[in-house]
Structures
1.
Amino acid sequence: MPKLAFTPHLRRHAPPAASIVAADTPRAALELIFREYPQLRGYVLDEQGSLRKHVALFIDGELRRDALDSPVADDAEIYVMQALSGG
């Protein structure tokens, strides 16, 4: 089963450690986490269900902003981070 983890900045709204999830896409994995941490949804997804502009999705170390609905392997590592910007 894939492992889903969040950057420390998001962990105040997410599981404190990586979670092993029974999911075949990143979106399905996120939906499982959103059930326990509903406030996290607004930080990760916009109103249309897409990744927010400043959220990055890494699958097995590769940046994949377009892959929410792409199949992932059982041993995939999915990492969600929120980019911090400013001047």
Note: The chain has a mean pLDDT of 94.
2.
Amino acid sequence: MRYGLFAAVVGVLVSWNCGAQAQATLAAVKARGELLCGVGENFAGFFSPDATGKYTGFDIDFCHAVAAATLGDAQKVKFLSATPSARFPQLQSGQVDILSREVTDTFSRDTSLGLDFPIITFYDGHALMVAKSLGAKTAKDLNGANVCTQTGLSTEVIIADYFKSNNLTYKPVVFDSRDQALAAFEKGRCDVFSSDRSTLFAYRSALSNPDGFTVLDETISKSLNGPTVRHGDNNWADIVRWTGYVLIAAEEFGVTSTNVDAMKADANAPAEVRRMLGAEGGFGQMLGLSDDWGYRIIKSVGNYGEVYDRNIGSGSKVSIPREKTLNALWKNGGALIAPSFQ
């Protein structure tokens, strides 16, 4: 009973402390003049540093978009490595303002870690990659398999749940980094490598013999990924959420980085576009930002389609198909949709 009371008190204090810290996020970012963005180690197409340490990728561009919205300069971002085991403490403690590294939204993360997931920016699902020499045609052929996973990711739980629910056994082979796990898989130390389907196709293309491996058809779980912020700061969560909605809505309305100036100046442009770009409505003030915050986002990084194609779509080495997936706009059969700017 004493322990229960103590735990409850600690929980209240932690929640209060996180909330107090979080409420100051926008003010801290403005005072610092720099957005602190937690990203992963190296995931081609999503977050990857070059030889000089400069980061590029889908999730990197999202932080550039937030910096453009809040500071008026997309380059005012400091990217900090946030490993799977350290990322949540880094966010909770205020070492970073946002995690933008394909964090998967789950019940326990949303409710017990003091985190908020303002918007889903990439829809995916876990799949299984195997060597063709294994002869496995479906996941049901993997009873007793060794499975390479990375510690600290939801993959461990997903694999355990899937094999248990299908009355299959397996042996986990756990590594500290995704690169270590992939290297072990390629060398045959384990039979299966599991991650999001898009990740598997990207990694398969980087193997020395891509044709020797295949991604099985089954999708064994859904993965809803996006930026993560501390719980308790509704204004900051709104800024991050609507940054994502600007990217999506801009693609829907045909607003791009190359025509955004003309669209903003066009008095006959749709009212929602004019509000989004700050030409009317005063919407930026509702977030504590300048009214041209949406314009700055699109001018700096483009719309969702531009960000996708440049980093992980047809214009990239990764080339993850977007058509007929949930990462298409709603009007094209996907799940990407933004609320109205009204």
Note: Residues 235 and 323 are 34 Å apart (CA to CA).
